[in-house]
Design goal:
The complex is a heterodimer of chains A (245) and B (243). With 245 residues, chain A is of the alpha/beta class. In chain A, 36% of the residues lie in helices and 24% in strands. Chain B has 9 helices and 10 strands. In chain B, α5 (136-148) runs parallel beside α6 (166-181). Chain B is globular, with a radius of gyration of 18 Å. The chains are: A alpha/beta (245), B alpha/beta (243). Chain A binds chain B through residues 42-43, 144-145, 148, 168, 171-172, 174-175, 200-204, 206-207, 226-227, 230-231, 236, 239-244, and chain B through 15-18, 35, 37-39, 191-195, 208, 222, 225-226, 229-235, 238, 240-243.
Chain lengths: 245, 243
């Protein structure tokens, strides 16, 4: 499965500038059907900007984005979401005074385009995958951090994505909580959802992904198997500074 | 003599735990460097020491006194000064005026406006320039000067090289080395490991709010620090890391 076929999501020659600031400087990125890729890199490397360009939250200054072989460069977030690109954010912002179930239902109805029984059915399925069945009727604002992260994941999942973009959803969790989140994401991956995951907590990331891409100063500096990437001297230098001989 | 002692510090940002049970002693005259990935809790720990962030648990002792409940501005008077990330100068004030703002809670000592201009020669001709018109390196020197003018016993520096051109970083670190040689006590957060190890006797590597590795700069190899920095030992224990 995956890399040999048409990529499910591909970005080619991506440049992104904010005024004089070059954030992405010619990035090529692609992910095959059902693959799992981690994106790492020091602060300011351009990781979240790349994710924003993949999700449609930002337009690239140059370059193109294709989903399943079709150009989506000019498509916005909602269109891409309906095509099958889901996104979970670093800081979950659920509708606080709505129940967990209602929050997921919003995802199924607006992002997934589902109505009535099909939408309800999808929600029940997603809540179970994300371990939220027991808290389905609680108000979202009463949830702890792990359940908020699970809800963020569930809302994205309710849109029935083929690719799930995850932005540092492991931040702030205890080891045990991170382990639970990893188990959920692994299950999604097993079910065939392609995963693009930005995460600073590398040891959590490598429990799921089979490939790592490292960005630094808007360019890809390493791409390959996780252990090879994290031992790459360019990667270590990017994080910790160069060794002065 | 131990100047700063942290005991079981926990700090949160809302639901998010940032520092998870850190205990650390810093001796008078010692320079230690906190390193770690984004989100490891370095800045929160520094702000907790300065009194700018209230810990959820644990105690902060300074010169033997429990200062956990002492407010930030009173800690400045006691001798703790923070140079925050991003400098945070008053852009409409001149270099000298920015320095004098720092002198509001000053302790007696050798640092005066004149002494700071001597120690940071690049600031001398800029004395009457507004902070907004300075380069990044000049702003950083002013921010360090503003902390020094309080004549602190403990100087906390948060990523002083962030966003600066390499030549400006050189200048800032040359001045810092003078302070270190004089026996100042410094806790600095620095992403560049080579620089951190060059100026600090001890390196503390943080991972997800805890201390992952701690030791004398000369004794910790870059490989061990890299492993702690990324939490690779945990990955190996979980069987997901080949290295």
């Amino acid at each position: 499965m995956g890399s040999q076929d048409t990529p499910i999501l591909a970005a080619v020659g991506i440049h992104k500038r904010f005024g004089a600031l070059v954030v992405l400087d010619g990035v090529d990125f692609s992910i095959g059907v059902g693959d799992a890729i981690g994106i790492v890199g020091p602060n300011g490397a351009g990781k979240t900007t790349l994710l924003n360009i993949l999700s449609g939250a930002l337009l690239p200054s140059e370059g193109s984005v294709a989903f399943n072989g079709s150009d989506v460069t000019q498509s916005g977030v909602s269109r891409r979401c309906r095509l099958g690109i889901g996104r979970a954010h670093q800081v979950p912002r659920p509708f606080g005074d709505m129940s967990v179930f209602e929050n997921v239902l919003v995802g199924a109805a607006t992002g997934g385009g589902l109505r009535g029984r099909r939408a309800y059915g999808r929600c029940i399925e997603v809540l179970e995958i994300c371990g939220l069945t027991g808290t389905a009727n609680r108000r979202a604002e009463s949830l702890g951090l792990l359940d908020r992260k699970r809800l963020e994941l569930a809302r994205a999942l309710a849109t029935d994505p083929l690719v799930l973009l995850l932005d540092e959803i492991g931040a702030g969790l205890t080891e045990v909580e991170a382990e639970e989140l990893v188990a959920t994401i692994r299950e999604l991956h097993r079910q065939g959802v392609a995963i693009v995951w930005i995460e600073h907590i590398v040891h959590v990331l490598v429990r799921v992904v089979e490939r790592l891409v490292c960005l630094d100063a808007g360019r890809v500096i390493a791409d390959g198997q996780p252990d090879a990437v994290m031992r790459d001297s360019a990667v270590v230098d990017a994080y910790l500074g160069r060794v002065v001989v | 003599m131990t100047l700063l002692s942290l005991q079981g510090i926990e700090a949160r940002h809302g639901l998010l735990p940032a520092v998870r049970g850190i205990s650390l002693d810093v001796a008078e005259g010692e320079t230690i460097a906190l390193v770690g990935a984004n989100g490891a809790g370095k800045t929160t720990l520094l702000r907790t020491i300065a009194g700018a962030h209230k810990p959820a648990a644990g105690r902060v002792f300074f010169a033997g006194e429990d200062i956990t409940r002492v407010r930030a501005h009173d800690r400045v008077r006691m001798g703790i000064a923070l140079v925050p990330e991003g400098r945070r100068l008053f852009p409409a004030l001149t270099v000298e005026e920015n320095l004098l703002v720092g002198a509001q809670r000053t302790r007696p000592g050798r640092w005066t406006v004149e002494a700071i201009l001597e120690a940071f020669p690049l600031l001398k001709p800029l004395r009457d320039r507004r902070a907004a018109t300075l380069s990044g390196g000049e702003q950083q020197a002013t921010a360090i000067g503003r902390a020094l003018i309080a004549n602190p016993r403990l100087l906390l520096l948060d990523e002083v090289s962030l966003g600066l051109a390499p030549i400006a970083v050189e200048g800032v670190y040359r001045s810092l080395q003078l302070l270190i040689d004089e026996g100042s006590t410094i806790v600095l957060v620095e992403q560049d490991l080579t620089r951190a190890r060059a100026v600090a006797k001890r390196v503390v590597c943080m991972l997800e709010g805890s201390v992952a590795l701690e030791g004398a700069s000369g004794e910790l190899s870059r490989e061990r620090i890299t492993e702690a920095y990324f939490g690779l030992r945990r990955a190996r224990e979980a069987g997901t890391w080949a290295g």
